[in-house]
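Working notes for the structural subgroup meeting. M.R. asked for a predicted model of this chain before we commit to crystallization trials. I am recording the input and output together here so anyone reviewing the notebook later can reproduce the run.

Input as submitted:
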Amino acid sequence: MKSGMVVARHPLHPALVHYPIGSALVALIADCIYLATRVPFWWGMTFWSLIFGVVGMFVAIGPGLWDYATTGRLLVPRLGIAHMALNGLALATLVADIVLMIVYRSGAGGMFNLTFGLTVAGNVLLGYAAWLGRQMVYRYRVGVAEPGEKESPLFRVTLAPEQTEIAHKSDPRDLP
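Returned structure, recorded in token form:
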């Protein structure tokens, strides 16, 4: 069943999710480097990577919800809900991480341990949610246009027999 939001015949949601996943991973790597070196640059790198990742997650939410509404809820509803819930939890975790980083401007003290834990937790949640998304696409074929398939059933227009004649008239003045 074809994806609801497509650009150049490619589904939009799977194309967008790589940015937040990559940004969260960069944040985790930067946190690990900061843990080893205590160089402030890596604290900032973590912060801005999380900002870009959260913004990317918000951008990917719209097409993801659209795909769920048009295809996912029909084929694998529980898997789609689990995918959304894990991504929502990851988003909340990473936003909490950002808020703590704003409140405690440097990685000094025990707050670094908490923000590091939130970065790790956010990455684990995001990784599992990404795996569920992969399962929906590659195992259950959600959002994949199969050969001969034209459109999602939610957007298919079916005309009654008496309307078929009207729909085939080419001149709008001939319509009642």
